[in-house]
Amino acid sequence: MKNRVARKKEQETQAVTLADRLGAETEAKLLAKKRALAEEEQRRLAAEEARRREEERRREEQKSFAELLEESELDWRKFK
């Protein structure tokens, strides 16, 4: 019983991390992959934002006079 308790305390003090188990080379590869994925996600989000802005600009260009007049806050009754 005492031996088991002693082993359990020893295991708790020697907490093994994932980095310890994998090794330096594998850890470096995983960190590089993580950075690459983060950069790719950032590029994807930037491209999506640019596409959305371009689409909005095109939509704004294609509006008819009636749509522009409808969006206008001017009221002809004030200028009568």
Number of domains: 1
Biggest sheet details = none
- Protein structure class: mainly alpha
- What amount of the residues lies in strands? under 5%
The Cα radius of gyration reads 31 Å
Terminal CA distance: 98 Å
Overall outline: elongated
Mean pLDDT: 84
Helix content: over 70%
Series of secondary-structure elements, N-terminal to C-terminal: HHHH
By DSSP (H or I, 4+ residues per run), the number of helices equals 4
List segments where confidence is low: pLDDT < 50 over at least 5 consecutive residues: none
The count of β-strands is 0
Descriptive keywords:
single chain; 80 residues; mainly alpha; 4 helices; 78% helix; 0% strand
Draw up the topology in text.
Elements: H1 2-13, H2 18-22, H3 24-61, H4 65-71
Short description:
It holds the Pfam family DUF3886. The chain is mainly α and 80 residues long. It has helices at residues 2-13, 18-22, 24-61, 65-71.
